[in-house]
Amino acid sequence: MSEHVLDAKGLNCPLPILKAKKALKSVPAGEILTIYATDPGSVADFAAFCNQTGNELVESSQDGDVYIFKIKHTAA
Amino acid sequence: MSDETVADIKRQSLSIIVTKGSLDWAYPPFILATTAAALDYDVTLFFTFYGLALVKKKLDLKFTVLGNAAMEMPMFGTHIAMPNIMAMIPGVDAMAGAMMKKLIKEKGVASIEDLREAAVLSDVRMIACQMTVDLFEYKREDLMDEIELGGAATYFEVASKSHINMFI
Predict the structure, then answer these.
(1) Could you give the ipTM of this predicted complex?
(2) Among the CATH numbers 3.90.1150.180, 3.40.309.10, 3.40.50.1000, 3.40.1260.10, which is that of B12-167?
(3) d(CA B168, CA B152)
(4) Which among B31, B40, B118 is the nearest to A13, CB-wise?
(5) Which of A62, A73, B8, B84 is a plausible cystine mate for A27, CB 3.0–4.6 Å?
(6) What is the Cβ-side half-sphere exposure of residue B159, based on CA atoms within 13 angstroms?
(7) What is the pTM of this model?
């Protein structure tokens, strides 16, 4: 199973969300997209994104300055 | 029977009337529109008056310190307010505009060109106000191909069905 990763480090609102939305399109349903971001606003944004779009936020964590989000593409 | 499916009825929608066209004011409508589109909203932007600057084929957005009472430019490790008199000095507005663009780039904020392209790719409906296009004598060829032309009634038809309506 291949890993789907999006590097959104250094990008500010709304780019992390826009790029994640685009990246999710090529993630098969049931698989996970891992996103790395440095924008502190992205923590709340990704939670909201998952609430609104029905995708599952499997993990939201932080490693130093980098935020890590794992989103499962739940088929819409 | 209505043609709307259950999914259509549940889908959130947003309309924004865009009346300003300076570099700073270009951000709120495009950020809101692209973010809403990423959240699967149905989005319509209605450009009128100075908002028309944002739908010209070739973007040439300007910036001024005049009248921007709350503006504080991050410079020299602190914030410098820009009193109106500074706008009278030749070159200050051009410099402030260049500084804004530099800040935008450095902070990883998207350019208006990129945000606008993202809006088009996300099927954001963009309508230009026919009346103000005529008022300012813009030609249809000066404006983006993707925009529709319409009047206030067109706007209300969209707005009456939108969950969220904004005036920027």
Answers:
(1) 0.75
(2) 3.40.1260.10
(3) 16
(4) B31
(5) A73
(6) 14
(7) 0.86
